[in-house]
Write a structure and sequence with these properties.
6 helices, 4 strands
Amino acid sequence: MRLACALVVTVVFALNGCSMAKLSQQQAAPLAYKAFGGDTLFYWVESPGNPISTVLASAALSSEVPLVQGLTRIVRSASSQPVRVSVSGTDSAFTANVIGAALGSITNELPGLQLAFIGNTGQEASVRHAVEAKRGKFVFVEQP
């Protein structure tokens, strides 16, 4: 059992790149502007902080989680009007999971949605799929 726990912790640290620098809101804001210009909402996703907590929080994401509810409120109106939102956070994988949970909780198509994901290329495809499945427009901006 101890070996299994040690292996899980090792894998979690390896997958999350514990040595990677985290993106700050101040770094992400100009990237959001780059995606759509000044006419965009900026949604920041703060991850729990350490890799283990982030993995556990990602597994527990649902439409009841405040981060998911906030983004859901923003994008829901894209079923009938244009909505431009840039989404980024301290952990790219966690941010992608929040986007997926928010869009997954909406049953309608969102043809007015233009969503820019500021993150790592490893999550680009999953976020693109979630946005385009709702008939939204996807823009990817790689974080530095």
